[in-house]
Amino acid sequence: MNAPFLGCLADDITGATDLAINLVQGGMRVVQMLEIPSTDELQQLNCDAVVVSLKIRSIPASEAAEQAQTVASRLNQAGCQRFLFKYCSTFDSTSEGNIGPIAEAMLGELGEQQTVFCPAFPRNGRTVYQGHLFVGQSLLNESGMENHPLNPMRDASLPRLLAAQSRFPISTITYNVIQQGPQAVLDALENSQAQFIVLDACSDSHLAVLAESIRDMRLVTGGSGIARFLPVAYRTAGYLPLAESKPSLPEVTGRSVVLSGSCSLATRRQVTNFKPHSYSRRIEPERAFVDDYVGELLSWAADQPDDRPLMFYSTPSADGAVASASTGTSAGTSAGTSAGAPSSPSVAEAIEQLHAELASRLANQLGIRRFVVAGGETSGAVASGLGVTRLRIGPEICAGVPWTESFGSEAFALAFKSGNFGDEDFFAKAIAQLDS
Predict the structure, then answer these.
(1) 3-state secondary structure of 127
(2) Which of 330, 363, 391, 405 is the most buried (most CB within 10 A)?
(3) What is the mean pLDDT of residues 103-112?
(4) What pTM, to 2 d.p., does this model score?
């Protein structure tokens, strides 16, 4: 088997599935891996792109850079020809990192001198104009992201954000250059003395021009928006087969379970919407430290009739009335934040561990094989609890969220949803798609 053409690193699990489904929609066969793979494993994959997802967005920058360098080395040794570092379209980071340090580490490992930064995702309202990142009509630092509990975004200027994180010189290619077409962008890249180059993008047509312009650049960094257009650019250049791959749904039967740990407003509404269609049980954060609380939840699940899916949620109510266990305050609703999430690391970690154990015991004791999971941290915990390390990417449920199927051990059907993604009926829609 040949190594994947494109080797990707994503800084969290739901961001990785978002990236993967955009590559799939471009006609690529994609495998997602939830740990650093060996070179041999990478060379055995029968796919066009591999996405390695690590929990490195908010850890110390030096640790994130070290892990990224290891991933870049493995992907390079395996024979990947192009590389992509994927981060959130809201550029989640601080003055210490981790986007700049990771990009530096990967450039160094690959022996390259220049890369681009393209977080824009116009379909989801993320655009870059004159180097400034917008969320809808608001500057990033006025969008609610300035209140993010882990990575408060208090500046919308991407060059300034990167300058605080990196020693590399930075420049910007603005929209007026991009509108002139790929050759103008290529000329601007060639003439720039900067190693880090921020790219404007206000529309899908801009992303299409940029993808054609950077198809020969070995390392690209950005959101999943640019990833949607790279497969076409690679195929046009003859780097991929002309025939496009079509994804298929997981062939996993049985009862479905929703596990919701996200406190975003979108997920809170989804939980409220799904209650009449499920047997639901709230996970009480203050009981996460109680011995065998999971056993109590499991006994409840075993007693429920099998005519509806199950739902467990630590998510506050849609009106924000449920208080945080650690702060005693009502859940907020700022866009892009984990509104209402427990701020105490010990409580948050305990809830993650509870979700991991609950998923494991639902699988081992009740035979559950189909999980819909809301929240990036929760998704990582559930994957760990189930022992899942490899995913094949299936069809899209909604923008940025696909069905996936684990392989290499036991088969699970898994939908990992970032908190803010999906309409109010997302949970019902996901399960109905699998049942169709």
Answers:
(1) strand
(2) 391
(3) 99
(4) 0.89
pLDDT of residue 147: 87
Cis ω before 98 (30° cut-off from 0): yes
In Å, what is the CA distance from 299 to each residue of 84, 304, 364? 44, 9, 13
Whole-angstrom distance, CA of residue 199 vs CA of residue 11? 20
Look over the chain and give the mean of its residue pLDDT values, rounded to a whole number: 92
More confident residue, 372 or 147: 372
Alpha helices in 79-157 (DSSP H): 99-110
Q: What is the DSSP string of 278-335?
A: SEEEE--GGGTTSTTHHHHHHHHHHHS-TTS-EEEE-PPPTTS-SBPTTT--B----T
Domains present along the chain, CATH in parentheses: 6-237 (3.40.50.10840), 256-317+346-435 (3.40.980.20)
Give, as one character, the DSSP assignment of residue 97. Answer: B
- How far apart are alpha carbons 342 and 320 in whole angstroms? 13
Is 87:225 a contact under the CB 8 Å cutoff?
Answer: no
For 235, the token pair is 């195929």
Top-confidence range, 1-5, 300-304, 334-338: 300-304
Contacts of 233 (CB under 8 A, 6+ apart): 211, 212, 214, 215
Which of the two residues, 162 and 337, has the higher pLDDT score?
162
Name the one residue in this structure whose structure tokens are 């990009």: 103
Q: Which helix (H) or strand (E) holds 119?
A: none
Q: Tokens at residue 349, please?
A: 């970690």
**Cα(245)–Cα(242) distance, integer angstroms:** 10
pLDDT (0 to 100) of residue 336: 36
Q: Helix or strand or coil: residue 165? A: helix
Sign of CA dihedral 184, 186, 187, 188: positive
- The beta-carbon contacts of 332-336 under 8 Å, at least 24 apart in sequence, are 332/147, 333/265, 334/144, 334/145, 334/147, 334/148, 335/135, 335/143, 335/144, 335/145, 335/265, 335/420, 336/90, 336/135, 336/143, 336/144, 336/145, 336/148, 336/420
- Which residue is it, tokens 């009480």? 284
Distances (CA, A) of 76 to 3, 40, 82, 122: 10, 12, 9, 31
Beta-sheet pairing, 49-53 with 219-222: unpaired
Per-residue confidence at 319, pLDDT binned at 50, 70, 90? low
Distances 211 to 105, 393, 421 between C-alpha atoms, Å: 23, 22, 25
